[in-house]
Amino acid sequence: MTDGRTHAWLRPLVALFLSVVFFLPLYLVLVNVFKPSAAIVADPAGLPAPPTLANLAAVFSRPDHLFLFGLINSIAVTALSITIVTVLSAMLGHYLARSRHVMAKVVMVMLICGLMIPVPVILSPITAVLKSLGMMTTLQGLILVNVGYYVPFGVLLFMGFVRSVPLELEQAAELDGAGKVRVFWQVVFPLLRPASASVLIFLGVWIWNDFLTPLIILGPDSGTTVTVGVYRAIGQHQSDFGAVFAFMFLATLPILVFYLALQKNFVKGLTGGAVKG
């Protein structure tokens, strides 16, 4: 009885502590967006009194249009990357989940090995390949790198979910004369919507927040994303902290809206492959 009562108050306390830890950085960004730089230096955690929109205006009025260019590039890179990865991962994940060929197992092992290699380790050979293809400092090169690196994650997630889809549905469609391609797109893929939402959210957040890869591939001067834009906005002698906080706030909004739009199917997509149907 004592253990039960202890756990009854301990779990909410731990949940509250973790919530405060994760919310504190968000709180600091939100309150400092609407304070002048002098007030930020004097009291970073204080509430804005009175609030000001000058920091947001400073971001949009930059003569180099750093935020606008970074936003356009980030949207293009993220949207194209996650769309291509989702389509390729769904097709390959379906094939590997249904195939009994030994090569399917070999491919799966290779994909798992690919997930174990961090991006910084392979950036040097990646840049060499992109230079030989003439795709260095281009958005196409960055998208290609994202697709190649994140496909293994999408494949493994789709494989688990495909196994929960009854094989009889595909067999019935094939008996009606549908080919394998038609069976996948018209029967299987619509059932993978929760898994697709999970892949889109995970990869969307990772690619949108990625800093090192676009910094190296696009270069600090020839191109930018929102994360690289924050780095360039800070500068070596930056003193306008309000504009920096405003830049970070605006850079977070699009991916937050994207998550809220897809979060209904997020948990279902993660747990859907846990039970084989």
Q: Which characteristics define this entry?
A:
0% strand; 2 domains; 277 residues; MetI-like fold; 14 helices; mainly alpha
Bin the helical content.
over 70%
Question: Total domains, how many?
Answer: 2
Strand fraction: under 5%
- Return Rg in Å: 23 Å
Assembly state of the chains shown: single chain
Helical element count? 14
What overall form do the CA principal axes indicate? globular
User: In terms of per-residue confidence, which ranges show pLDDT below 50 for 5 or more consecutive residues?
Assistant: 273-277
Give a structural overview.
This protein is mainly α and 277 residues long. It folds into two domains: 2-52, no CATH class; 63-274, MetI-like fold (Orthogonal Bundle). The protein is 76% helix and 0% strand. The protein has 14 helices and no strands. The longest helix has 33 residues, at 66-98. Residues 273-277 have low confidence and may be disordered.
Offer a quick outline of the entry.
By secondary structure, the chain is mainly α.
How does the SSE layout of this entry go?
Blueprint: H1 2-33, H2 37-42, H3 54-60, H4 66-98, H5 102-115, H6 119-133, H7 139-162, H8 167-175, H9 180-188, H10 193-209, H11 212-218, H12 226-234, H13 241-262, H14 266-271
Helix pairs in contact: 1-13, 3-13, 4-7, 4-10, 4-12, 5-7, 6-11, 7-10, 8-9, 10-13, 12-13
